[in-house]
Amino acid sequence: MFKQLLLLFALCLGMGCSTPNLPLSLTYKGYPVNNSTTDTALTNLIQPYGQNVNKTMGTVIGFANSTLFKKLPESGLGNFMADCMRQMASKQYNQPIDIAFMNQGGIRASINKGNITVGNVYELMPFDNLLVVQEVKGAVLEQFFQLIAADGGWPISAGSSFVIQHKKAINITINGNPLDPTKFYLIANTDYVANGGSNAAMLKNIPFQNRGYLLRDALIDYIKDLTKSGRPINPTIENRVIVSNE
Amino acid sequence: MNRRNFIQNTALTAGAILTSPLSEAAAIPTQYPLSILHTNDVHSRLEPFPMDGSRNQGLGGVAARAGLIQQIRNQAEQVLLLDAGDIFQGTPYFNLYKGEPEIKAMSKMGYDAVTMGNHDFDAGLENFANQLQHANFPVVICNYDFTGTPMEFKYKPYITIQKGRQKIGILGVGIELDGLVPENLYGKTIYKNPIELANINAARLKQEKCDFIICLSHLGDKYEENKVSDEILAKECYDIDLIIGGHTHRFFEQPRKYTNKRGGDVLVNQVGWGGIQLGRLDYIFSGKNGKNLSKAHTVVITRNTSK
Questions:
Q1: Looking at the domain that runs over A55-243, which CATH code has it been given?
Q2: A230 in reach of chain B (CB within 8 A)
Q3: Count of domains observed in chain B
Q4: Chain B nearest C-alpha distance from A37 (Å)
Q5: How far out from the chain centre does Cα A195 lie?
Q6: What is the edge-to-edge ordering of all strands in the sheet holding A184-190?
Q7: In the A/B pair of chains, how many CB contacts fall below 8 A?
Q8: Does B210 touch chain A (CB under 8 A)?
Q9: For residue range A88-115, what is the model confidence (pLDDT) as tens digits?
Q10: Residues in contact with A55: Cβ distance below 8 Å, sequence separation at least 6, in sequence order
Q11: Is A89 helix (H, G, I), strand (E, B) or coil?
């Protein structure tokens, strides 16, 4: 009799497993995660990390002689960022870069006159855009300049210039020489733009070198380098981009 | 008492004992609850969003999330806590600590399983694998082949968890890495077709007699172009009941319902990003159901309007 019961028990268990328990109904809710109830253990867990994060964000890495704004067709802030991209890309990829581009929409804050902190750079460049390098034929680069001109002019690195006339780019010079449609140029961009972002479709299918170097880290390194070598952060307008509606 | 009667009576009693350890009477309960809590794309948001007048100010943060989870655990019978990837990247915490506090916090909150998002590769695959020393939860992903990488022995294609009467199968799928994640970060990881692998692994879970199969997905909910997504997975799968999604940072008004290859319901849900919301799906399961084995069943969905 006990044996029978055991057998039955096993049978029930077996059945319980072989016949699925089906879901009949579902009630859903999205809870806003607000501070109404906080867990002390978690607060304590992140507290030491947070202290250090706040300290790091407050770390001063340089000094701005004047407030740097973003502005079209050209701005000190834009020039500063494009120059940083060219120099740090040359360093990171160990090859001379002909020209660097900073997409105007990617500049997210100003840099105020005075001390520059790591946190300021996070505000300037909150995106995790990577600094990448592409080898681009002059003819394609010209199309890219046309996009930039139609967009009002993005920041470009020192030594290069162009004129926007009726939303078209003319008189394009790269490194002091007129753009040669048959020549290949090494350009520095964010991975966002190199992947065709901001309508840069002409760049999309061109392979790019990527070492996982964030533009934000490039900016922090660049500012630190300048500060270390005693050079001021004082970019100027150099007529890299000129609007002429003659 | 003849033998047949004896068996019937005993079956009833044994059934009652088995199904309802807490029942006072002989009544056999026929419905079993399971509460699934979920997050996605938390992106290193350990602290609440700063009080700077922006839309999300004061929302999120692990302390508040843990408090909420604890409240729910105090009330609900069976709780699962899941995350659909992109745990990493987005605040300076990640830049400084490469994910250590994120993984520690999730361990403390009692996550049952997570899958990997593209940003979880951001400090390199070796870093992700290293940070898992702080994890007490498994990483499930079935369409990345990590052979020969630091992740090789640190993930599972799927897991099973017994929750009360229900045996729950959980698998994971990840997004195509090429073009999204720098190659030097994902290394020798091989991306495989998520639909194929999800179906193969869900079939295994079915063989292991799971009552309910959840897929954690970082594919994204849907795309304009014909790119693989949760929507496509839902329509092309056979055995998956629920897809907990991510990547596209969408706050769903309500779970989306699709019909799978067997004609059954598949639900997809996603709760935005940044830990702004905690998703809660309260399922009620039938006690036993020998008749309806086809899986071509319908799940009734309602919104929980309680505070």
A1: 3.90.780.10
A2: no
A3: 1
A4: 5
A5: 12
A6: A99-100, A184-190, A130-137, A208-214
A7: 214
A8: yes
A9: 999 999 999 999 999 998 898 889 899 9
A10: none
A11: helix
pLDDT at site A1 = 45
Query: What is the rounded CA–CA span in Å between residue A26 and residue B212?
Result: 13
Q: Is residue B293 part of a domain?
A: no
What's the CATH code of the domain at B70?
A: 3.60.21.10
**Cα–chain center distance at B189:** 22
DSSP string, B34-99: EEEEEE---TT--SPPPSSSSTTTT---HHHHHHHHHHHHHH-SSEEEEE-S--S-SSHHHHHHTT
Distance CA B96, CA A56 (A): 9
* Of A126 and B163, more confident: B163
Nearest by CB to residue B285, choosing from A16, A22, A211, is A22
CA–CA dist A235, A246 (Å, integer): 28
How does DSSP assign B96-138, residue by residue?
HHTTHHHHHHHHHHT--EE---GGGGTT-HHHHHHHGGG--S-
How far is residue A155 CA from its own chain's centroid?
A: 15
Let me know: does A154 contact A148? Beta carbons within 8 Å.
Answer: yes
* B242 against A13, higher pLDDT: B242
pTM of model > 0.90:
no
So what's the ipTM on this one?
0.84
A239 CB-near residues (< 8 Å, 6+ apart): A74, A161
pLDDT of residue A171 exceeding 50, the answer is yes
- The whole domain housing B80 covers 31-286
* Residue numbers of A between 131 and 190 with CB closer than 8 Å to B: none
pLDDT of residue B181: 82
pLDDT band at A19 (very low <50, low <70, confident <90, very high): low
